[in-house]
Structures are given as C-alpha cells and as structure tokens.
Design goal:
With 327 residues, this protein is an all-beta fold. It has two domains: 100 residues, Lipocalin, CATH 2.40.128.120; 176 residues, Exo-inulinase, domain 1 (Jelly Rolls, Sandwich), CATH 2.60.120.560. Strand 11 and strand 12 form a beta hairpin. The longest helix is centred in the N-terminal third of the chain and has 6 residues. It is globular.
Amino acid sequence: MKMVIVAVLCGLLMGAEEFVPKVPRDVYLDPKDAGLEYKMQGEYAGELLGKDGGMKKIAAQVVAMGNGKFRAVRMEGGLIGEGWDGKSRLELQGKLDGAEVAIGGEGDVYQGKISAGIFAGETRAGERFSLMRVERKIPTLAARAPEGAIVLFDGEKSDELVDVKVGGHKMLFAGARTKRPFTDFKLHAEFLVPFMPTGKMESRGNSGIYIQDRYEIQILDSFGQKPAANECGGVYRQIAPTLNMSFPPLVWQTFDIDFTSAKWEGDKKIKNAVVSLRHNGVLVHDRVEIKNKTGQGKPEGPQPLPIYFQFHGDPIYFRNLWIVESK
C-alpha cells in the first residue's frame, strides 16, 4: 500500500435532512475539532541507524490516551501489513510537552520526541532513529459495487435499509438494518470510528456488523492494540483476527466480508457458519468457523436473517455499503 495523505470526511450532504448526533465534549467526529493530541497520534515509519552504520526499517503507532497522555508501540520491519516482522512490539508511555510529545525516558529501551510530524530519538544502545508520520491508502476504499450487487447505501440510495439516519458528508449513522434477509454473500462496508481519547477498552468507538443478526464482526477504535476477539475485526468474543489492521480513528476503514451460512437438517445444525474478512484490504480471517451466535446476537437457526449495522451508544458512521449474494 502506498503512503499518501487520505482525505477524510469529504463531500456535502445532498437530499435527506442532515442527522447530527449529540456527543460529549471529549468525543470528536471531525479532525479539525480534535486538537493537538489527534494531530500527534498516528502511524510513523522510517529507519533506525545501527552503531555499525547499518540501516533497518522500523515503524511506530502512537495512540492518544487523553489528558496529554500517549502510548507508543514500536515495530521492526515496518507497519502492520507493510513489512512488520509479526513479533516485535516495544511499548512505551508518553506525554504532551508543549507542542511536542515526549516518549519514554532515561533507561527505557528507547526514547524520543514527536514534533512537526517527525518522531526522532535513540535506543538505549545509542542507535538513532527518525520516523515520519504517514497516512496509508487503503486499496479497497471506495470500491465500486460490481454488476449484480445490491446497493445498501451509496450516500443517497438507502431503500434496502430500515432505521436510516443520514449525517453530513453522505454518511449513514449506526443503527440501520437490511430489509431483506441474507444467506451466503460478500459484503463491502466502509466505516469511521470517532476520536474518543479518554475512552477505555470497549468504550472507544464501539459498534459492529451483525451478520444475520447473529454473528458480530466487531468495530472499535483498536488502533495500537494487540489483536483480540473483542477488538476491531474480531468475531466477537470468539475469534481474534490474525493481525490488527486498525487505522487511527476519524480515518475511513473497510471490511470485506465473505460469509457462508451454517447448514441445517431440519432444526439440527450440521455445519458451522464460515467467514473470511479483509480489514483495510488485508486478510485477517481465512474461512474461520463461527461456532455459535455472538454477544447479543439472535439464536442460530435455519432461517436467514437481516444484517444489522449496530448502534452501541457511540457515533459510528458507514458508507459505500453493497452486497453480492452467492449462488
């Protein structure tokens, strides 16, 4: 994936009356309102100069935790999904210091400062590094619905959905559900989670896509976290993604879900539901079996049910929703 600046929240509402959610003071839906901490947060990539003169690629994810606090995760090889070695994860705390962020301190495995889009510092062994803030382009963003697809929401069309609320920038607010049930399908969905720096764990941009009203693929601000079944991209509380491909909040992300329904003989299940998921274009679930309904999902059964774009109290937006039924 190329590292380019991604335009966030572009376009103006046309048609339907704009829906504006009420949000607390420490919840942000627009980068312009999110302040200095949001500008410092993000992904950084560059190189580390070894004491022998050799160079190696490293990267970091810097997460704003609110009240001037930060968490930085340094990785070897590059960003997740772009060269990361899959093992290294050096995590340190940081804090806002004027217009800069200080990460780590004396005696830590590394330390540095973030200023004007550059994260520079050195390791305990005296190796120097310099990383630049980057915003990655998602290859599946703005994917066009293929011929024969059912368009659920394209910014204006929403007649395939119920409980529709459309906000500024042609975005669908969480809470909608498909009118029709679905059995086997491929679903493309784009979503945006708010910036909630003081939120903890699942109180940080919580939503999900409930397949057949039964099986939840978790949506959450999981930027900088380890992959887990209750983090973004997880089959909720059952199966963790192989990688946490979450990008920072207020950046549009994509799910591409390939779902095969459970098989039944009468009221007896003879085969589990199967799902594959590409998060931001990277395969994080490869035909994994879902053993039972998840969370607050409806009980399993032979009848197909709709898809629910969950409202769980946080202001989550969706766009470019389309589905292709499998024959």
